[in-house]
Design a protein that fits this description.
single chain, about 625 residues, alpha+beta, Rossmann fold, Elongation Factor Tu (Ef-tu), domain 3, Alpha-Beta Plaits, 5 domains, about 30% helix, globular, binds guanosine-5'-triphosphate, Transl_B-barrel_sf, nucleotide-binding, GTPase activity, elongation factor, protein biosynthesis
Length: about 625
């Protein structure tokens, strides 16, 4: 462990450098961050393990970063000790919002590019975000140790993009540690120190927070102006609430309590408050005795892209689910939710997510961190429905779809950018066309790789598009998208009926051309999942009152003739007639119980198959190598 001379709260502002590491998914941010921790001595060789800053179990297991992590790292250059605030950010498109918040806490960004892959879709989107935030960009090629690395080619690509010389692009290896020392020196030289006013009243931006069951809410802050001392009463500017801070400190990489935090420093505050509504990401903290007049700009609330219902398997767990969502929201500002009831599934919440991976991570965290057993309904986007009578409805859930004559349905669109090697242009075009995409421009990033722009319905892109793109391009294409307007479309609501009863959890809004496929797929799936009963069960898919698909679960039949050896045929016939009558009566009275497992399986297999997990991407890449 290192000892610092720069003590938190007493560090000269001119010696502070705050930077984040941004990159496309898998280009090695967390690995480079590991080497920085090791080289600077904040983590000893013995304690080191891969992806040190990915603290959640899910992050470690999946090998992806979900949450940004900020650490304080000392670095000595030319005999002067500097204090680096380093933030490792996630790379997946669903977590772009996390990146945008991290950028707010920094003056510089290390733009990491895999030297075997080159620029990818999220490299560009993260770079544009960093430029928007006026950050100093340090371009870096990673993985130069790999035999397939082509640093010269990709340095030229980056230089072309940033308008710099290829020699300005640093070359490092997160694996071997080569070039990391030069990188840290360059950060000290090029990233400007923070520009807050140390003598002004305190203003600190809350850029993240997390609920700790033992200590309450831990709030991560970036000090902008002034100096915050450990025992000062603090005020949350937008809420107007006042708290005694229980503890003030820095993350290094464990939490270390300090006496103060000065302008430009990144650290944490624990207020001891357990009510999650008391701490809002994006709020400004000031002191009670000398409050600042103007709060900091804060963050724009992210707009959810997909919605899905979350229901506890055991309905008695509804209050626990509410509490768990409240706590998770603290750590995941992009999550939105409101109570919902379903005839089939009982009480639950309709939740809004930034994408399917986000949705998957939230349900997994709810079950791991809060021990909840949940069923999630098929995801859908938001539609604006106008009826013949002029009434307008915002439909976030297929069961809210109004009855009656529909005049117009409007769906959200996204602007998508796809980067692919040029030999796959044709396949990408076909795929986009299948998904109702409108082609825009196409630019060559280098003689081998192109960036294609498309406008597409959000509903087409969030579900299985990414997976299909990966498989059609052997894992080489990358995708980025953001919301971009809306359009009227030919959409219908497909209902699923079991024994004539509409099961709301299975309803979906789909494009007219795909309604038949959805109906057939769902009825087939349910036929396999629902156990046979004493009577016949019809499973139907319907648009309004029109049935578009049907499957039948055959009745279980007891062998009533078992005891009849030989003998009179009329006796056998009589027994069969009696059985038939009994079945008919049962069918009239019988009620089909859909087992919970069938709900879970029917609703989840879609995403399980289409999961855009990194395993699949890696598998696709491997098979290509
Ligand atoms: N050979 C080699 N492999 C590397 C290097 N840097 C990272 N890797 C590997 O690349 C994979 C992805 O690295 P991560 O550090 O998890 O990538 P990331 O950018 O943090 O990923 P996300 O946070 O999920 O976006 C891991 O298997 C690393 O071991 C490197 O310099 N050389």
């Amino acid at each position: 462990m290192v000892t610092y001379t720069n003590q938190p709260g007493f560090t000269q502002q001119s010696l502070i450098r705050n930077f984040c590491i941004i990159a496309h998914i898998d280009h090695g941010k967390s690995t480079v961050a590991d080497r920085v921790l090791q080289l600077s001595g904040v983590v000893s060789q013995r304690d080191m393990h891969d992806q040190f800053l990915d603290r959640m179990d899910i992050e470690q297991e999946r090998g992806i970063t979900i949450k940004s992590q900020a650490v304080r790292v000392p670095w000595v250059k030319d005999g002067t000790e500097y204090t680096l605030g380093m933030i490792d950010t996630p790379g997946h498109v669903d977590f772009t919002y996390e990146v945008s918040r991290a950028l707010e806490a920094c003056e510089g960004a290390v733009l990491l590019v895999d030297a075997t892959q080159g620029i990818e879709a999220q490299t560009l989107s993260n770079l544009y975000m960093a430029i928007e935030h006026d950050l100093t960009i340090i371009p870096v090629l990673n993985k130069i140790d790999l035999p397939s690395a082509d640093p010269d080619r990709h340095a030229a690509e980056i230089a072309n993009l940033l308008g710099c010389s290829p020699d300005d692009v640093l070359r490092v290896s997160g694996k071997t540690g080569e070039g990391i020392r030069e990188l840290l020196n360059q950060i000290v030289d090029e990233v400007p120190p923070p520009h807050g006013q140390s003598q002004a009243p305190v203003r600190a931006l809350i850029f993240d927070s997390v609920y700790d069951p033992y200590r309450g809410i831990v709030t991560y802050i970036r000090m902008v102006d002034g100096e915050l001392k450990a025992r000062q009463k603090i005020r949350m500017m937008s809420l107007g609430t006042v708290h005694d801070p229980g503890e003030l400190g820095v993350i290094c990489p464990d939490m270390i309590a300090t006496k103060a935090l000065g302008a430009g420093e990144v650290g944490y505050v624990i207020t001891g408050v357990k009510d999650v509504a008391q701490s809002k990401v994006g709020d400004t903290i000031t002191t009670e005795t000398l409050p600042a007049e103007q709060p900091l700009p804060g963050y724009r609330d992210p707009q959810p892209m997909v919605y899905s219902g979350l229901f506890p398997v055991d309905n008695a767990q509804f209050p626990e689910l509410r509490e768990a969502l409240d706590k998770l929201k603290l750590n995941d500002a992009a999550l939105v939710y409101e109570p919902e009831t379903s005839v089939a599934l009982g009480f639950g919440f309709r939740c809004g997510f930034l994408g399917l991976l986000h949705m998957e991570i939230v349900s997994e965290r709810l079950s791991r961190e809060f021990g909840l057993d949940l069923i999630s309904t098929a995801p859908n986007v938001t539609y604006k429905v106008t009826m013949e009578d002029g009434s307008q409805h915002l439909v976030k859930n297929p069961s809210e779809f109004p009855d009656g004559k529909v005049k117009k349905i409007v769906e959200p669109l996204v602007a998508a950018s796809i980067i692919t090697p040029k030999e796959f242009i044709g396949s990408v075009m076909d795929l986009c066309q299948d998904h109702r995409g409108q082609m825009g421009t196409m630019e060559y990033l280098s003689p081998e790789r192109v960036e294609m722009h498309y406008t597409m319905p959000l509903a087409e892109i969030v579900f299985d598009f990414f997976d299909q793109l990966k498989s059609r391009t052997k894992g080489y294409a990358s995708l980025d998208y953001h919301e971009d307007g809306e359009q009227a479309a030919d959409l219908v609501k497909v209902d699923i009926l079991i024994q004539g009863d509409k099961i709301d959890a299975f309803s979906a809004i789909v494009h007219k051309e795909k309604s038949y496929t959805y109906g057939v797929m769902m009825t087939k799936k349910l036929r396999e999942l629902i156990p046979r009963q004493q009577f016949e069960i019809p499973i139907q898919a319907a648009i309004g009152s029109r049935i578009i698909a049907r499957e039948t679960i055959r009745a279980l039949r007891k062998d009533v003739l078992a005891k009849c050896y030989g003998g009179d045929i009329t006796r056998k016939r009589k027994l069969l007639e009696k059985q038939k009558a009994g079945k008919k009566r049962m069918k009239m009275l019988g009620h089909v119980e859909v087992p919970q497992e069938a709900f879970i399986a029917a609703l989840s297999t879609g995403d399980a198959e289409d999961r855009d997990s990194k395993d699949k991407i890696r598998a696709a890449k491997k098979s290509n190598e």
